[in-house]
Amino acid sequence: MTISRRRGVLLGASALAVALAATACGSSSSSGKSSSSSGGAQSATVSDADLQAALTAGGNLTVWAWEPTLKKVVADFQTKYPNVHVNLVNAGTNKDEYTALQNAVKAGKGVPDVAHIEYYALPQFELAKSVANLTEFGADKLDGTFTPGPWSAVKKDGGVYGLPMDSGPMALFYNKTVFDKFGITTPPATWDEYIADAKKIHDADPSVFISNDTGDPGLTTSLIWQAGGKPYTVDGTTVGVNFASDPGTQKFTAAWQQLIDGKLLAPITSWSDAWYQGMASGKIASLSIGAWMPSSLESGVKGGSGQWRVAPLPQWTAGAKASSENGGSSLAVMQASSNKKLAYAFLKYATVDEGAQSRVDNGAFPATTKQLNSPDFLNKTDAYFGDQKINQVLADSAAAVTPGWSYLPFQVYANSIFNDTVGKAYVSGTKLSDGLKAWQDASIKYGKDQGFTVK
Amino acid sequence: MASLSADHARPGPPAARARRKTRRSLVGWKFVSPFMALFALVFLAPIGYSIYLSLYKTRLIGGTQFVGAQNYTEAFQDSQFWSGFGRVALFLMVQVPIMLGLALLLALAIDSGRLYGAAFFRISVFLPYAVPAVVATLMWGFMYGTRFGLIGNLDKAFGVTLPDPLSPDLILASIGNIVTWQWVGYNMLILYSALRVVNPSLYEAAAIEGAGQFRIIWAIKLPALRGALMIATIFSVIGSFQLFNEPSILKHLAPNAITTYFTPNYYAYSLSFDGQQFNYSATVAIVMGVATMIVAYAVQLRGMRKAG
User: Fold this and answer.
1) What residue of A is the nearest CA neighbor of B268?
2) Where are the alpha helices (DSSP H) in A81-216?
């Protein structure tokens, strides 16, 4: 009966095979761990001259990344340093790449020299000692090179585990034509105003929504972050998860529960076809999302050209200027790399030196203060956004990111079960706060099961 | 004649007979050895390795430890696993009878010879089977959309509000619909081919005896279909327990209706790919494999008892 069902079996079998491959070398990875643990606050032992020498000597580098602007960076890099051969591999996007990466690390072979890792996933690799501490190459001296949000995301206990490649300070992207149509002349400055606007729009036309949400862990944690919440505490292998009595979380749930109860958010999942259609047809009027969104809007919602604008994220406290990050990623040197010096030299080229500018020119949102503050970048206008200087809004957001946030060392897994728990609030009578409590419990259970000390 | 055959069958000396027997059996093994080698490599070895894996536990902190049967006791107490198991069991009990009942009706209709354009009818019912499951699920997923899909269009055209097929309450039925759509033609073909081998003289005899169509179905066709129905049932049982494609694709459209433990196979997938819990994932896979074998065997025993 079963071509398709057999495919299911095959998938299951390949899952199993991956599992086999991964765990086969589980025992050897522990021995690898002990040899590779380098001290946290080591001073630089590799000078810039050493890096230069490594670049001149050349060698082969394998880079796993899905970020499109890296293609040009790699080409330019090889032109400048002809002895270095970079093999740029797209090993999948986010979760898919992490799975492949974790399996390669466990198997002890096929590990790339450099990997593209998002900020929320980096702690997981740092904890497993899969990524190298870059302080020995002088990365700690890059203080001030990057904006505070991304820089704190790659640092831990005095170590630096990746160099920020891009960042996603949040902003409110809105369709001005739709807002105007419903008499909303200024974008909402606070979340209370946002709720009022949401009602105004939806009451006037029930097919139009101020935004969409079907339960998105990235959005939820970013908004709690903006509200000053600190539901996660991480200290080495001791972790704490507390949504239940976190003040920032309570601000978020109070507002979001109103939006859910009033059915004011379109039940459309982000990145689905319906999502793009919804924005194209003006049924989804705005998005609270990271600064990397413009290129996706321009390619995914072509018809919206000239209609969209960017405003600061609505505030939890009137008059405040708080923001948070949503997404964004780093490049990390893998501990298993046999040529870490060269790998770091590439990292520096791609994120700090020529590569940083090249990537911004090709539409990436920078994590470097130099690019972020350059007049060229700030004064750039974009016809899609009605010639608004959107980078000024986004750069202001980058500077206003609330400090002190951390993700769990197993955030990838925690996010994967978000919809099992918090998702219920979107489709049944479950309260959002109860959903978050269930998420907390499930995260704690997993943490304990994985050997963490849970506070 | 009798003596001749006795002579022919006279056994040789015991030693020679034994030697011949050994040689004969060795020849047999040589013939099956390519199969056995592959079978061991791609079937027995992975199962053996999964069992091995299921006896260990790897943690993010603390590495790998031998834990004996701990994963199994955990699986038996795991409410998420059992909720997935219950879901596929329910699916099996509702969807399989509906699908096979439909397939039976269609097969009988085509076999009755009273259908105009039977060949076209047959191919059009069978056609969904040729659509890859992933494509079929995506297609149905679009139709199920209340906002931009077929359901949304119907709502708009008739000014009604149809229930959302992707809501948590209806999602299992919606998956059942996709699976039925896809497999009914395939099962129909199994049953129809079994009907084709019935000796037509039986029908002639029945007609002479004055039996009507329903009497013929009851007394000739259904008994002839018993073996084919059993095969179709066993395939469907296995297919239901291994439900994976449909939920994993619909999860993108209905993230809150389909949990990461929606079916046991999907649970095993989530455990290893999202949770890095390879050992526990292997355990779930083995428990589910054994459960499937037991149920399929029970169905087979029951089918054979009826036949006997």
Assistant:
1) A12
2) 95-107, 122-127, 148-154, 176-181, 191-204
In sequence order, which ranges of B197-244 are alpha helices (DSSP H)?
200-208, 213-216, 222-241
Q: Are the Cβ atoms of B183 and A450 closer than 8 angstroms?
A: no
Choices 3.30.70.100, 3.40.190.10, 3.40.50.970, 3.20.20.70: CATH for A41-167+327-373: 3.40.190.10
Q: Are the beta carbons of B303 and B231 closer than 8 angstroms?
A: no
Question: Does residue B26 sit in the same domain as residue B108?
Answer: no
Q: Could you tell me the pLDDT band of residue A29, with boundaries at 50, 70 and 90?
A: very low
Find the mean pLDDT for residues A216-221: 95
B268/A452 Cβ within 8 A: no
Question: pLDDT tens for residues B79-99?
Answer: 999 999 999 999 999 999 999
Q: For residue A274, what are the contacts with CB-CB under 8 A and spacing of at least 6?
A: A268, B145, B147, B148
Asked if A17 reaches chain B (Cβ–Cβ under 8 Å), the answer is yes
Chain A contacts of B232, Cβ < 8 Å?
1
Condensed to tens digits (0 to 9), the pLDDT of residues B203-246 reads: 999 989 998 888 999 999 999 999 999 999 999 999 999 999 99
Contact A12 B285 (CB under 8 A): yes
How high is the mean pLDDT of chain A? 87
In this prediction the pTM is 0.82
Confidence of residue B306 (pLDDT cuts 50, 70, 90): low
DSSP 8-state secondary structure symbol assigned to residue B127: G
Task: Break chain A into its structural domains and give their ranges.
Answer: 41-167+327-373, 170-324+390-454
Testing the interface with B: which of A1, A281, A410, A430 to mutate, by most B Cβ within 10 A? A1
For A18-22, A213-217, B130-134, which range has the lowest pLDDT when averaged over its residues?
A18-22
Considering the domain architecture, whether residues B147 and B252 belong to the same structural domain is answered as yes
Among candidates B142, B255, B265 on the partner chain, residue whose Cβ is nearest the Cβ of A8 = B265
Structure tokens at A114: 């450099």
- CATH entry, A170-324+390-454, from 3.40.190.10, 3.40.50.2300, 3.30.390.50, 3.40.50.10800: 3.40.190.10
- What pLDDT, on the 0 to 100 scale, is given for residue A24? 38
* Cβ within 8 Å of B, A 408-437: 409-410, 412-413, 416-417, 419-420, 423-424, 426-428
d(C-alpha B55, C-alpha B70), whole Å: 8
Task: Tell me which residues of chain A, numbers 204 to 223, contact chain B at a CB-CB cutoff of 8 Å.
Answer: 214-215
How many Cβ contacts (< 8 angstroms) between chains A and B?
Answer: 159
Cross-chain residue pair B253–A272, CB shorter than 8 Å: yes
A residues 270-289 lying closer than 8 A (beta carbon) to B: 272-274, 277-278
Q: Return d(Cα A14, Cα A189) in angstroms, integer.
A: 50
- Of all residues in chain B, the one with the smallest CA distance to A102 is B276
pLDDT digits (tens, 9 = 90+) for A438-451: 999 999 999 999 99
- Name the residue range of residue B17's domain: 13-54
Query: CB-based burial of residue B200 (10 Å sphere; 0-12 exposed, 13-18 middle, 19+ buried)?
Result: exposed
Residue-wise pLDDT tens digits, B65-75: 999 999 999 99
Return the number of other C-beta atoms located less than 10 Å from residue A395's C-beta.
23
Tell me, what's the pLDDT at B9?
47
In chain A, the residue whose alpha carbon lies closest to the alpha carbon of B264 is A12
Q: Is residue A10 pLDDT above 50, yes or no?
A: no
Is B59 among the domain residues?
A: no
> Would you say residue B7 lies in a domain?
no
Q: Do A23 and B278 touch (CB under 8 A)?
A: yes
Q: What is the largest CA-CA distance in chain B?
A: 91
User: Given pLDDT bands bounded at 50, 70 and 90, which one contains residue A44?
Assistant: low
User: Who's near B86: CB < 8 A, 6+ residues apart?
Assistant: none
Position A262 pLDDT exceeds 50: yes
> Distances in Å between the alpha carbon of B104 and those of A196, B107, B177, B221, B237?
58, 5, 17, 11, 17
